[in-house]
């Protein structure tokens, strides 16, 4: 694909689609909006239920048609990257897990992979496979959440109940394994927090046996339904060149027919040892993005079935005393183990100086962690490259020329998690 | 983790990125920065690169030969400006706004240099190392 050839088209659309006015620049807003008598600038959000948290959109409207728009973010900004500079590498996952709260395990994984790269640490095979198991379960729960909220945004309100019901079952399984429904702090530098509990196989089997039939019900309820298709097909169209120019990853990029998935193309963990398909769309519209996420749940179920067969035995965390606290039982009988445990949790462990970028394929696209260490026990700088943050830039392009009612469908199809956008 | 790392000067940044784009680097994934105020003795720079307070970090990805390249650009404290990459990769718009907001690095030629995460009337740049954690006066309009 020639980049230069598509440049001009991308640029033209960019100029006409993106509204670039400071959010408090009222005078300029009036002057800009006065380009024609009938246009006006309207605020949508930040407290609108369909904005998935606190996203605000400035829409330049011509009647009911959206001309230019600008996503205004930052309402959920809590300075988590600054906080990360005060937390040890062991405390770090508790911080990053709160960024993308719908798929917390992926942030923990990216953080841990970056730390391990700086430490030069090799994670035991069982830890790797447990991480994969957890991530695929989390991908399922995240995509189910999308199905629920997307259905509700479009007006298929009963979908809210079904999507949430199925997601709760996935979360229950995550709770059985990690102890928490969300914000698990389960994947940590060096491995995972605990081994899988007894009976985990049966619980995973129960879930992946029950889900396909439920997904078929989603198909009955939504996929073939004329009203639903009318609301989504041909709405919010974007092409591959625009996606790549905007740095978009994940289901939005794949909806344009471009097969790019880090799990397959730049494998991490043990994704090169499992068999799965990368789901792509054709038209790059809202319906494709819906269908991709639905089918990615099916692919995750396929991966889970293989993980059940291939899960190796062994350690669930690295046996390096520098980063791993001693087993709980040892603390009762050994003073040295107690001191060791205390020091790891109070002082943390030192990480060699350096800088590294580690990335994983989250349900929303490439989630990267850029980490700089100065040789101390806390990161000198920790930056999360959030897929939602970058993907939000597609909104003006997708919305231009559409109806304001379609704006709701488009926001929903981008599936942004504002906690990770604002950090 | 086999990302290649390139050290480029501010003047060569646009040129280097344009060259990488012709080589098939389809996307800029990430633009971020580091304030090395409290870590001046870092040793991971080659001899010919003089360390400065700020470092701009640009991560690009190639899909044809899957791989990432990271550009590290030294930006001095007394003149924290860099050319924008918006003309080459429009996706850097929000990322550069974040760096400008958090570090006070000015991107010359950026189409929308407004604050992105902090309130528009906020003073200071939170991710700079001399911006303290906690004990900062509340700056929101409504509290005055």
Helix and strand topology:
The complex is a heterodimer of chains A (423) and B (144).
Chain A: H1 3-17, H2 26-33, E1 39-44, E2 56-62, E3 65-72, H3 80-84, H4 92-96, H5 104-119, H6 125-154, H7 157-178, E4 187-188, E5 191-192, H8 200-223, H9 226-232, H10 240-245, H11 251-254, H12 262-265, H13 286-310, H14 328-333, H15 335-346, E6 354-362, E7 365-373, E8 381-385, H16 387-391, H17 395-399, H18 404-414, H19 418-422
Antiparallel strand pairs in A: 1-2, 2-3, 4-5, 6-7, 7-8
Helix pairs in contact in A: 5-6, 6-7, 6-13, 6-18, 7-8, 8-13, 13-18
Chain B: E1 4-8, H1 10-22, E2 25-35, E3 54-62, E4 67-75, E5 81-83, H2 92-103, E6 106-108
Parallel strand pairs in B: 1-4, 5-6
Antiparallel strand pairs in B: 2-3, 3-4
Keyphrases for this structure?
heterodimer; A: 423 residues; mainly alpha; Cytochrome-c3 Hydrogenase, chain B; 3-stranded antiparallel beta sheet; 19 helices; 8 strands; 51% helix; globular; B: 144 residues; alpha/beta; Beta Polymerase, domain 2; 4-stranded mixed beta sheet; two-stranded parallel ribbon; 17% helix; 28% strand
């Amino acid at each position: 694909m020639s980049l230069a050839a598509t440049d001009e088209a991308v640029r033209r659309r960019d100029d006409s689609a993106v509204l670039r006015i400071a959010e408090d620049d009222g005078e300029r807003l009036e002057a800009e909006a006065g380009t024609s008598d009938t246009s006006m600038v309207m605020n949508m959000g930040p407290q609108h239920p369909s904005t998935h948290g606190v996203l605000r959109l400035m829409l330049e409207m011509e009647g009911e048609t959206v001309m230019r728009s600008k996503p205004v973010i930052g309402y959920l900004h809590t300075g988590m990257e600054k906080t990360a500079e005060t937390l040890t590498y062991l405390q770090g996952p508790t911080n990053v897990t709160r960024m993308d709260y719908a798929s917390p395990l992926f942030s923990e994984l990216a953080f841990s992979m970056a730390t391990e790269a700086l430490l030069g640490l090799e994670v035991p095979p069982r830890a790797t496979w447990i991480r994969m198991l957890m991530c695929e379960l989390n991908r399922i729960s995240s995509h189910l959440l999308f199905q629920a909220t997307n259905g509700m945004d479009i007006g298929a309100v009963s979908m809210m109940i079904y999507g949430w019901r199925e997601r709760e079952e996935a979360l229950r399984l995550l709770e059985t394994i990690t102890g928490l429904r969300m914000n698990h702090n389960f994947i940590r530098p060096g491995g995972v927090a605990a081994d899988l509990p007894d009976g985990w196989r049966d619980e995973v089997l129960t879930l992946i046996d029950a889900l396909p039939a439920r997904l078929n019900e989603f198909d009955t309820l939504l996929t073939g339904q004329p009203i639903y298709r009318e609301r989504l097909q041909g709405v919010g169209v974007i092409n591959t060149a625009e996606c790549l120019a905007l740095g978009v990853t994940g289901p939005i990029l794949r909806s344009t027919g471009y097969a790019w998935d880090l799990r397959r193309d730049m494998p991490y963990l043990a994704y090169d040892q499992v068999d799965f398909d990368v789901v792509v769309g054709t038209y790059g519209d809202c319906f494709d993005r819906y269908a991709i996420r639905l089918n990615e749940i099916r692919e995750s179920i396929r991966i889970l079935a293989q993980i059940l067969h291939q899960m190796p035995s062994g350690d669930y965390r690295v046996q390096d005393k520098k980063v791993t606290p001693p087993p709980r039982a040892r603390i009762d009988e050994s003073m040295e183990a107690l001191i060791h445990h205390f020091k790891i949790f109070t002082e943390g462990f030192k990480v060699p100086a350096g800088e590294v970028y580690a990335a994983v394929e989250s349900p929303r696209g490439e989630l990267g962690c850029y980490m700089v260490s100065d040789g101390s026990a806390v990161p000198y700088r920790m930056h999360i490259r959030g897929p939602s943050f970058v993907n939000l830039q597609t909104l003006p392009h997708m919305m231009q020329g559409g109806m304001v009612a379609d704006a709701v469908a488009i926001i929903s199809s981008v599936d942004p998690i504002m906690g990770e956008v604002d950090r | 983790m086999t990302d290649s790392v390139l050290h480029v000067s501010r003047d060569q940044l646009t040129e280097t990125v344009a060259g990488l784009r012709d080589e098939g680097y389809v996307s800029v994934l990430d633009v971020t920065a580091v304030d090395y105020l409290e870590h001046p003795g870092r040793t991971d720079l080659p001899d010919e690169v003089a360390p400065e307070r700020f470092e701009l970090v640009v991560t690009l990805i190639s899909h044809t030969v899957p791989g990432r390249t990271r550009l590290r650009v030294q930006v001095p404290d007394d003149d924290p400006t860099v050319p924008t990459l918006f003309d080459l990769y429009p996706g850097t718009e929000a990322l550069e706004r974040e760096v400008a907001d958090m570090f006070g690095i000015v991107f010359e030629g950026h189409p929308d240099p407004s604050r992105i995460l902090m309130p528009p009337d906020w003073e200071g740049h939170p991710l700079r190392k001399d911006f303290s954690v906690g004990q900062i006066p509340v700056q929101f309009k409504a509290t005055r």
